[in-house]
Every structure is written in C-alpha cells, then in structure tokens.
Recover the amino acids of this structure.
C-alpha cells in the first residue's frame, strides 16, 4: 500500500497547538474553575491567560477604568459621575458644548448642570470644544509603499494632513499660552505633540514635548497620553530604544493604555523587553520588566515570579503571573474533552471525573488486556494526518478489543494509564510528570507568598492548588480560615468549597442528593443564557457560554452514577431521553428505563435528572419500540410482538428540522412525519422481504430492491407497521416448520428480512431507531464490534457509536433451512448468494477486531500492511467464502448466477 503525500493546504488544517481541529477555541477546552479576573487591578485583564486571541477578552471592557475620564471627573470636582463624565467628554456633540457656552444648552445633562457650570469650568469646556473639533482629524495619514499589501482604505477619510497645519499650530499655541490651569495647559501641549506626530512632523513632535509638556511639572494621565505620542514619533524617527522605553513608561503608569503600549513596544524593538530590563533602575521598573519578560516567555514563569517576589511580594502583577500559571495548570488538569484514539485516530469519550474501584474488583484477563491495549501512544504529526484520512474515507479497523467495561477497571490499570485518566481519579494526582512538577513548584511558591503578602488572593490560590492535588480537606481548611470582604474573593471561596465537597464525595446517595438540592441547587438548575451581542468581548459569542463550574459538577455527578452502576442516571445528567435513539444499546436503555420507573425519586432526581426525559412525547412507546427492535434483530419475533403491542400513539422517532432564512436566521422545529412516511414504526414496505438488485442505499427502494413474489403468503401486505410485521414473521416461521417448497420460501423470506435489516442491508435502519439508511456511525463495523466506548460517563453521547453487532448466523440458519427444502435450482442459487452475502458480514466483523501490532510510524509500515492484508485475504477465502464456493461449484450454470455476475462486481470477480 502506498503512502500518499498531502498538500500543505491540507496539512495546515491540522497543525495547531491545542489539537487537530483548527476551528476549535482552546479557551473553551477547560472548565474555568479558578476565575482569572479576580485580580484587583483590572487594568491587567488583557494580560490574563488565553490561547484564543492575542489578549484576554473574556471580560466587560468597562471593567478597565479610562484614565482620561477619571481625570476629567476629578477636574469637575466629582460633580458628575463616571458615566456622565464619559458622556460629556466623548459623546456630546460640538454643538451641544457651544450651546452650553452660549448659555442655551438643550442637552438634558447640560441643562441639569445649569448655566453656572460653564463659568465655573470655562477653561476645561473651551478645551473640550477645541478637542472635539480636532478629533475627526486625529489619525495618521497612510502612505503606501511599493512593498505594501493592498490596503482598502477610504481615500477621502479625514486625517491630520486635512487640517491647515500652520493655522492649527498657531491656534493651539495661543490657547496653550492663554490657559492658566496647568492640567488644561498640558492638554493643549498634548494636542500639539499629537498633531505633529500624525502629520509625520516627527522632529517637531519631539520639540513640542520638550516645549509644552515637560515644563509643566505634572506626571499624570495627560503626561502619559503625550508620552505615548512622543514614543510614536520616536519610532517614526527609528529611535527604537527611546520609543520602546517611553512606551514602557506608558504601560507602567496608565490603566487603559496597557494593551496598546504593549503592542507598540513589540513593534518598536524586536528585543524589546530584554532592552527594557537593561534600562530599568527603580524596583518598580525592574518588577514591571520582569513581568513583561515572564509574560512573553511563559514556559516556566516561576523563576521570574521568584525575582518579582523578592522585589515586592504584594505586587499586583505578581498575582497576574500566578493566575496565568494556575490557568495553565487548569488546561492540563481540567480539559472538557477527554481524548483517546485507536489506531485510526478516532476520538472517543469526553474527559471527565472517575473513581477507581477496590482491589477486589480486578478485571478479568480479557478486560485487563483490553485496558492495556488502548493505552495512549505518542504518535507523529504525519501519523495523525493519515489516521484522520483513513477514518474520513472509511477506515474500518480498530486495534482495541474486548468490552472495556468501566466497572471492571482496577486501581492499578487506571494508574498505569495516566494519559487516559482525568486528574480527579482516586489515587492519581497529576496529568503527567512535568505537569505534576509544575504544580508542586507553584504550590511551594503560593505557600511562601501567602505567608508574606497581606492579600488573601494567595490563600485562595493555595487552596485551589490543593484542590488540584486532590487534598480536598486541606483546601477546605484553608478556605475556612480566609477573612475577606472582597466580593470576588468571596464568590471564588464559595465556589471552591462546593467543589471540594462534591468532588470528594466517593458515593452519591439520596442523602447527598438532598444536601446538594438544599445547598447547591444554583449549580445544577439550568439558567437561560442570552447572547451578549453588544459586547464583542463576551464569553457568549460564537461558541456559547464557556465551560463553567456547573458543567464540571454535572460531569462529576454523571461519572459517580456510572461507577455506582446507575448508568441511566449518568446518561440523563448529560443527555435527553430522545438521544438514546442514536445508540440504543440494550443495557443502557434498560438502566434508563429503571430510573424512569423508580418510585419516590429524590428532589435532585426529579428536578435535575428526570427533566431530561421530557424530549420524548410517549415515553412508554419509545422504550417499547427500542426493545421490540432489539428482539427483531435477535429473530425473537414473539417477544418483539409483545413489545410492539404496547406501542400506542407513537408519534415517530423524535427528530428536529433545521431551517435557515435570510430574514429569521436558523429555526429549529420538531419533525412532523407525513402520513405515508416511515417514522420508526409505521409504513414498512413488503420489499423488506425482497433482495437487492444492486447495492445502492441512496436509491429508491423500488430501484434497489426486488420482491420475491408473495402470492403464497397473502398475509404479507404492501405496507405494514412493526406490529403487523411481527405477525407476518410469526406466520412465516410456523409455515417454515413444514417440509415443502412453501416452507422453503417462508424460511428464505425470513432470512431475507434478517439480512436486509442488518448493517449490510438496504433496510438497515429499521431496527436501530433510525429513520432512513443514510450512512452514519451506527453502520460502521468497527463501532459496533469494539465494545462499549463510554468508560467514564455518557457526555457527548452522539460523538461515538455503540450498538450490539448483528448476528449473521441467524439469517444463515433460515437460509440453510430454505436451501435444504427447496428443489428449485434457480431458487437454490439465489439462496446461496444471500448466504454468501451474510457470510461476508461475518468476515467484516472479524476484520474489524483483527489485531494489529504495528502503526504508521513503523518504517516498514507499507510492507507490513501489505502482508497483513494478504493474510486477511487468504483467511477470507479459506473461512468466509464457503457459500460462494458452493455456488460456483454447483450452480455456475444457473440463470440466477449469470444474472448476479452481471450486477455484482465482486461476485463476478470471485467466479472467474
């Protein structure tokens, strides 16, 4: 087999830091249990940990104070609140302010302030009038170079060069000289520096700063606004070292300009932060330089944090570094998805909490082997690519075997599989050795910091790290000792106490469920989440709400129930009852039904779990249809009838329609089945007893299937429901007990139905709770034969498939009876071909489970794969072509055989 080279365009889809999905958002791949934004200085919010964008954006921008507004608020003697000041400075029009100056204000805010307001703050209002006049022009003119990319910019857009430069400079200089208030005078100086910067008069900008800013001995907000403009002009003059240092000063001394100053530093000097470190003299400057160095190179920030701690253990930016480190640990310890891949790169179950069992629950040899076989291997990037495409284009083999029952995994097995087990598994305290070392080092640091710093933050951080180490008792003790009035700290402490309580609970019983409903109901009761369309930085963007504490606790509960053998409750913690249709395996369905019928449910069971059964209209009909379907697949027609008889007023398998329009967007509505449409119970064609003319699942039944002719069996109707179908089968089975041609025909029809409703048949959807035969996970051999994939709970239930495999021998046995009783040569040829087709199904099942002791990283992969395929082909011909061989030997001259050779390519190939 050849190894194919993939184009770079294809490869780029997979080459990401977080996982193989370039479209995923890494900030939504962990649970956010420790709230980064509890830092007190909100001006550092953009520098919290994120992989999704250049800066952290999961906060309301209004949380960062605007230095300029706070300065104006103070100038107006706090006569206006923050919002009113913001309105006055940024939103009121030039006409509004001129009306105030003329004593005829019409704006409600200005009327509220009264006519004396202008006289009291005349210099400030006059400055705002001038600033509002200049503001539309305050951008630098774009100059396209020969190396520029295409730049789609409105050529008529105003910029600083649109002003009369000399006239504007003269006016600002005059206003500067006339102003008496030093702060207002400095603001005119800022406008002079800015105008020169934006008109690319860089030397004049530097001179303006020296002339108009520095002589005024104020180093407040306006000074750093002007310094920001000076640094921009210095960068224009390629004075990168000085520009970088001044941007650093802006970063250090402003609240709302940190993000832009950081970007400007990066643009000014490729070695920006190292050079800043060389120029830092004061402890504050050194501390900030260390922060920027650590922020840029975050592989192991603890050595940097140690240096920052030595300078100032109460530093707010030290807490920023610590919370980033905690967040990094969270991403390793608390991912929302639990990935495990078999040999073809297929992703299985959600990563979540699990408890191991006592040593007496050691697995059988078979199951122990299974656990070891699926141990995660480190695979190369190219191997992942090939595995992905094998899966995408129909790979059908798996290296795993056995049933993998979660209830039989011993402590030792789980501990030997660290890459497969979540952090909160009993007896396991780390994601891998490196992460565990990092956690230990960070814990040592926070323990030291909490002893020296007066901020309760360090106690909270230390308690959280104890939680990650699963020392829930000590974590809670630390939390109980914290004395604080900070509302954000209090909320984090409350949440962490809940986490410690629930995660440390080894068994969930009725008493604990009552405790949760009494004390923690808010974490389990679903709340309506609305999109925050007005705030682009909101969590509630394209991906919806970020994973939360409530999501985490729900997963913990789901895992506890599964390990307690309460699979039904585990399933309903994360899924609705209607989801069972996608993987209706018998044991899970039975457990869900047992919960449904459980009397005296606790309040938690009623309000949190049972509500997820509301997605099915007639629950009794839903369960009985599933049970009847399973009995049909086992050829137990009498048992199937007993279930189908209980199916009353079945509205159809619950599905939804997704419609989209330009006007209303996407709308989701329940599917309404037409009266003649198959809905999971009604409208089954008599062609289900026929044989396929060609293998085409997408074609109409009349094109793919052909009737055998049912004149001997008038009770077979053209259209039946499942109950009627069982009556037909029961009658056919009774007739099939005879010894004549009619008995042969009856057995053949039963065999046809069993084959046609198997994974290979046109009607493969009839008895697996599906509404058509279109391809899907439930129709893959490797999904049905590899065993139960739900190791920890049923989160993301529909991301993988598990249905009990077909028993092709059931169909073959009926065909054997038909072959024995039939005296018609053509019929015998047809029956043998059907038997041969069913035998192929048995081979596919074997192939799906066939062991494979090499992978794509093996340098001799092609050679070994070819040898393996040859071995499988030989085995197929020796053990799984019995009826083909009989057909070729005894009936090669039959008209039926000749016809089959013309319509079935693989049969024609075999008959040569």
């Amino acid at each position: 087999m050849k190894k194919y080279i993939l184009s770079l365009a294809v490869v780029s889809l997979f080459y990401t830091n977080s996982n193989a999905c370039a479209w995923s958002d890494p900030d939504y791949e962990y649970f956010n249990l420790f709230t980064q934004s509890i830092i007190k200085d909100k001006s550092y919010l953009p520098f919290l940990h994120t992989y999704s964008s250049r800066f952290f954006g999961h906060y309301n921008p209004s949380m960062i104070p605007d230095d300029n507004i706070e300065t104006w608020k103070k100038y107006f003697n706090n006569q206006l609140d923050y919002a009113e000041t913001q309105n006055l400075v940024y939103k009121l029009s030039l006409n509004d302010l001129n009306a105030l100056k003329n004593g005829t204000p019409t704006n409600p805010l200005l009327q509220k302030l009264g006519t004396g307001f202008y006289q009291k703050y005349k210099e400030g209002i006059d400055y705002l009038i001038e600033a509002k006049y200049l503001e539309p022009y305050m951008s630098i003119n774009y100059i396209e170079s020969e190396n520029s990319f295409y730049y789609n910019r409105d050529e008529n857009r105003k910029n600083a060069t649109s002003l009369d430069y000399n006239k504007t400079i003269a006016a600002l200089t005059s206003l500067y000289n006339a102003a008496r208030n030093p702060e207002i005078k400095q603001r005119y100086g800022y406008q002079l520096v800015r105008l020169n910067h934006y008109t690319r008069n860089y030397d004049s900008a530097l001179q303006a700063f020296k002339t108009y800013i520095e002589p005024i001995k104020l180093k407040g907000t306006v000074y750093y606004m002007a310094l920001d403009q000076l640094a921009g002009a210095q960068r224009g003059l390629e004075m990168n070292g000085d520009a970088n240092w001044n941007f650093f000063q802006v970063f250090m001394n402003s609240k709302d300009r940190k993000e832009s100053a950081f970007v400007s530093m990066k643009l000014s000097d490729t070695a920006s932060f190292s050079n800043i470190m060389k120029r830092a003299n004061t402890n504050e400057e050194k501390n900030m330089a260390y922060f920027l160095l650590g922020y840029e190179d975050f592989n192991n920030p603890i050595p940097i944090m140690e240096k920052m701690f030595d300078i100032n253990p109460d530093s707010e930016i030290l807490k920023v570094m610590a919370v980033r480190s905690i967040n990094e640990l969270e991403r390793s310890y608390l991912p929302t998805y639990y990935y495990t891949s078999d040999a073809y790169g297929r992703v299985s179950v959600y990563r979540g909490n699990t408890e191991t069992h006592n040593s007496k629950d050691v697995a059988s040899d078979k199951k122990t082997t299974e656990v070891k076989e699926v141990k995660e291997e480190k695979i190369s990037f190219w191997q992942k690519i090939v595995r992905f495409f094998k899966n995408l284009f129909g790979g059908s083999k798996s290296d795993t075997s056995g049933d993998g029952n979660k209830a039989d995994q011993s402590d030792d097995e789980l501990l030997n599989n660290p890459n497969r087990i979540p952090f909160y598994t009993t007896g396991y305290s780390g994601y891998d050795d490196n992460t565990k070392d990092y956690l230990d080092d960070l814990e040592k640091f926070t323990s030291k910091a909490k002893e020296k710093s007066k901020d309760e933050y360090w106690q909270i951080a230390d308690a959280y790290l104890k939680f990650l180490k699963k020392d829930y008792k000590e974590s809670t003790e630390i939390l109980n000792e914290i004395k604080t009035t900070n509302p954000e700290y209090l909320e984090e402490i409350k949440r962490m106490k809940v986490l410690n309580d629930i995660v440390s609970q080894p068994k969930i019983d009725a008493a604990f469920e009552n405790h949760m409903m009494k004390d923690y109901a808010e974490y389990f009761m679903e709340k309506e989440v609305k999109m925050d369309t007005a705030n682009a930085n909101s969590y509630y963007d394209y991906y919806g709400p970020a994973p939360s504490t409530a999501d985490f606790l729900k997963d913990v509960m789901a895992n506890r129930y599964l390990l307690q053998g309460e699979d039904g409750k585990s399933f309903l913690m994360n899924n609705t009852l209607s989801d069972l249709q996608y993987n209706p395996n018998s044991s899970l369905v039975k457990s869900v039904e047992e919960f449904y019928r459980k009397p005296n449910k606790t309040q938690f069971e009623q309000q949190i779990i049972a509500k997820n059964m509301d997605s099915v209209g007639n629950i009794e009909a839903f369960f009985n249809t599933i049970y009847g379907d399973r009995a049909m697949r086992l050829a137990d027609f009498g048992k199937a009838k007993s279930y189908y008889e209980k199916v009353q007023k079945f509205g159809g398998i619950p599905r939804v329609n997704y419609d989209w329009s330009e006007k209303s967007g996407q709308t989701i509505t329940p599917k309404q089945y037409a009266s003649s449409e198959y809905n999971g119970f009604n409208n089954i064609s008599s062609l289900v007893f026929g044989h396929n003319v060609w293998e085409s699942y997408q074609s109409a039944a009349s094109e793919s299937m052909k009737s055998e002719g049912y004149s001997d069996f008038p009770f077979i109707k053209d259209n039946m429901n499942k109950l009627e179908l069982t009556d037909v089968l029961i009658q056919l089975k009774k007739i099939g007990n005879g010894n004549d041609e009619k008995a042969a025909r009856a057995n053949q029809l039963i065999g046809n139905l069993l084959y046609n409703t198997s994974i290979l048949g046109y009607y493969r959807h009839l008895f697996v709770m599906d509404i058509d035969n279109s391809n899907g996970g439930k129709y893959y051999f490797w999904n049905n034969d590899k065993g139960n994939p739900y190791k920890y709970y049923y989160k993301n239930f529909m991301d993988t498939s598990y249905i009990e495999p077909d028993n092709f021998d059931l169909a073959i046995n009926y065909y054997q009876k038909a072959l024995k009783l039939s005296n018609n040569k053509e019929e015998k040829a047809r029956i043998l071909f059907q038997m041969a087709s069913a035998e192929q199904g048995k081979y596919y099942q074997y192939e799906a489970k066939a062991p494979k002791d090499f992978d794509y990283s093996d340098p001799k992969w092609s050679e070994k794969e070819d040898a393996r395929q040859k071995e499988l082909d030989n085995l197929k011909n020796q053990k799984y072509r019995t009826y083909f061989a009989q057909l070729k030997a005894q009936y090669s001259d039959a008209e039926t055989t000749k016809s089959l050779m013309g319509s079935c390519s693989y049969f024609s190939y075999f008959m040569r």
